[in-house]
Structures are given as structure tokens and as C-alpha cells.
Design a protein that fits this description.
Length: 400
């Protein structure tokens, strides 16, 4: 695919160019209509061109665009209060992205151990298959060799263990361990959800050893699993000490946040961290409007209803196309299908049939549609996938 000579060749976009969006649909210049079941990689959770978000942005744009954190941003203060009232957190640091939120989370954990008299505790246990961002620290935290290649020696301080293996975590804990970092539902790693009991067991391990529990809910948060955050399915039994969020929490406007308990954030004093754009007025206005929509019980009821319906329909597709679909997995409206054919090729075939889906590790076709989808939208997607899988049965099998 030809690239723009003036842009890094880090992406390989298809020929389609979208110029506008409405709800769950995207449109090209020639007005071709696509059903969007990827939502900007779990970002446009409220769909495209949502009136509440457009209104919030338009109103704020006529007031203040940017102040920097030299001054109090009142919209950020108000949003932090909302976050803390709805979660385990006492403190919030606003960022521009998920990677920055994870960076802040890791710094918060290490700093907490430092101020509590344990500077030797700096190692962070992470899970194989994780994706925490593209910065130096976050690619090392994820431990994916593909993302580390060519960027020099591995950074010290990260212990990567098998996903979902409690014994492996126990064996990795040492006198140097500061925290455990994991995604309650891995997105890039193949749409793999950790059981609620596993989250509770890791919480108990952290309490036993004086460690901080960090969740990366950048992709699994923002109502995607039917709760505001995925770990909340444990009903308080697996709350973290620190959590990174982003993506859908901004409804499409770039923003992220690091949430922490008072204990965890105690060491993050003036001079220890900062961000020029993080928590800016525009982002805070939009994210506040998004938060209000995401905490609407009717929306969460729709997520759970559609998740059940979508899973049922996908299980039927699995039965109808056993030569293509191996497994249905995920949680809520973060759903994946592990395929026997090449997921990337199937994704491209779906796009040719006007359905936008993603792919993930472990040869998974990944779907993270807007949370506002209807049964008709799901039926349309299933009809397209049924056609796509019929065509895909003659493709070469995937060999991982």
C-alpha cells in the first residue's frame, strides 16, 4: 500500500478514507456506509458525532482551550471528583493517552515503595501477551519481542510471567517486587478475560506481600464490559491501588488518567511528575460529558443485553463455520473469535463487505463496537460475518 512520503511508515491504512461518522456508522467521501465494530480500537464507545460530546467540546472551545497545569483547570477538578466517587480512587492524574497513564501508574507504584522506605522494591510483575503502550517503559512492561526489536537492550525492572497463572506470579515475587500490573481483559493479547476470582487472588497476594496492584483498564474500561471498569465485576473484592484508563473515557477526544488511592499517590508531590497538555480544558469538558453518559444505567443495561445477544450469535457462527472459528472469547462488548484461518485476511474481507473489525494476538478477530449498538446492528454484523466465513473456508489455515 503506498504511503504518504511525509508521514512515518508505521501504519498501513487501507484504501478507504472516512470523512464523517454517525452513531455506529462511518462514511467515505463517496458516501459508502460501513458498520463500525472496531470504534477506533475501543475509543468511540458512544459512537460517532455524539451530540452531548459535540456540545461539550463546542461550548468549551468558546471559553478556554489550554492553560497548562501552572493553573487550576476547574473542569479537571470536577471530573476527578466524579472518578473518585465512582471508583476505589482518592487521587487522579490526567494524561493525554493510555501509554502515559500506564507510565504514571508505574511511577506512582515505585514512588510509593520509595517513600514507604523500600527503595529496593522497583520490579513490576507483568503478564505475557500484555499491551501497555508504545513508550520505552510500556513496551518493556508488555515484554512482546516484536515491539522490543531494534530499540536497544531491555529495560530492567520488569518480570514477565504467563497470563492467568497465579503460581507463576507467586514464584516471581521477591524482595525487589514493587507491584503487579495486569489487564483484567487483554485486548491486543487476544481478547482474554481473567476470571473474577483470579483478580481477587492477586489482590490478596499484593496485600500479603505489601505490593501495589495496578490495573491497565485502558481498553477494558469505559463501560465496555457492562461495568464502568472490568474489575468492578468483583464487587470491591479486587480493587487496585493504581489504575490506568483512557480510550473510551474520552469518547474519542484524546485523554487518559491515572487513578490511585491516597496511600499510593502520597509520594507524587510537586516536581515528581507532570504533563503540559494532560487535563486540559477541552479534554476535561468532553471527558466529563462522556463520563455522564457512561454512568447512565440505561447504557450499561444495553451493553450487557447486547453482549449476551452478540455472544449467542457468535457462538452460532462458530457452530455454522467450524472450519473457520475455533473459539469465542472476551467480556461484555470486547469480544473476539479465535480463528483457524488468518485473522488479518478475514478482517480485510469483512471490510470489503462494509464491516469494520479488528484483529489481535493469538489470531483473533476482535470486535469492540460502540456501546450504543442495537440488535439490528448485531444482526447486520453477523450476516456479514456469515458471508465472510463462508468465503474464508477456502483460505489457507493459520499457522502460528
Amino acid at each position: 500500500m503506498p504511503q504518504n512520503d511525509n508521514i512515518y511508515n508505521c501504519y498501513a491504512p487501507p484504501a478507504e478514507e472516512f470523512v464523517r461518522g454517525e452513531g455506529v456508522y462511518l462514511y467515505t467521501q463517496s458516501d459508502d456506509k460501513y458498520l463500525d465494530f472496531v470504534a477506533g480500537i475501543a475509543v468511540n464507545g458512544l459512537g460517532h458525532n455524539h451530540p452531548a460530546l459535540v456540545g461539550a467540546l463546542t461550548e468549551q472551545a468558546g471559553k478556554l482551550w489550554h492553560l497548562s497545569n501552572m493553573f487550576k483547570v476547574q473542569e479537571g477538578v470536577a471530573l476527578a471528583e466524579k472518578y473518585c466517587a465512582a471508583t476505589f480512587a482518592d487521587k487522579v492524574f490526567f494524561t493525554n493517552s493510555g501509554a502515559e497513564a500506564v507510565e504514571c501508574a508505574m511511577k506512582t507504584a515505585r514512588r510509593c515503595q520509595f517513600v514507604e522506605g523500600h527503595p529496593e522494591r522497583y520490579e513490576i510483575i507483568t503478564c505475557k501477551g500484555a499491551f501497555h503502550g508504545r513508550t520505552f517503559a510500556t513496551i518493556n512492561a508488555g515484554g512482546n519481542p516484536k515491539y522490543l526489536e531494534g530499540f536497544g537492550p531491555a529495560l530492567p525492572g520488569f518480570i514477565n510471567v504467563e497470563f492467568g497463572n497465579l503460581d507463576a506470579i507467586k514464584e516471581a515475587i521477591s524482595d525487589k517486587t514493587a507491584a503487579i500490573l495486569m489487564e483484567p481483559v487483554q485486548g491486543e493479547g487476544g481478547v482474554r478475560a481473567l476470571p473474577v476470582q483470579f483478580l481477587k487472588d492477586v489482590r490478596a497476594l499484593c496485600d500479603e506481600h505489601g505490593l501495589l496492584l495496578i490495573y491497565d483498564e485502558v481498553q477494558s474500561g469505559a463501560g465496555r464490559t457492562g461495568k464502568l471498569f472490568a474489575h468492578q465485576w468483583a464487587d470491591g473484592g479486587a480493587d487496585p491501588d493504581v489504575m490506568a484508563v483512557a480510550k473510551g473515557m474520552g469518547g474519542g477526544f484524546p485523554m487518559g488518567a491515572c487513578l490511585a488511592t491516597a496511600r499510593a499517590a502520597e509520594g507524587m508531590i510537586v516536581g515528581t511528575h507532570g504533563s503540559t497538555y494532560g487535563g486540559g480544558p477541552l479534554a476535561m469538558a468532553v471527558a466529563s460529558a462522556a463520563f455522564d453518559e457512561l454512568t447512565n444505567p440505561d447504557l450499561m443495561a444495553n451493553v450487557n443485553k447486547m453482549a449476551n445477544f452478540m455472544t449467542q450469535q457468535f457462538e452460532r457462527l462458530k457452530q455454522d463455520h467450524p472450519e473457520v472459528v475455533e473459539d469465542v472469547r472476551g467480556k461484555g462488548l470486547l469480544i473476539g473469535m479465535k480463528l483457524k484461518k488468518k485473522a488479518l485476511d478475514v478482517r480485510n474481507l469483512a471490510r470489503a463487505n462494509k464491516l469494520l473489525v479488528g484483529n489481535a494476538g493469538d489470531n483473533v478477530l476482535r470486535m469492540a463496537p460502540p456501546l450504543i449498538i442495537s440488535e439490528d446492528n448485531v444482526r447486520d454484523a453477523v450476516a456479514i460475518l456469515d458471508k465472510v466465513f463462508t468465503e474464508a473456508k477456502d483460505m489457507d489455515d493459520f499457522e502460528g
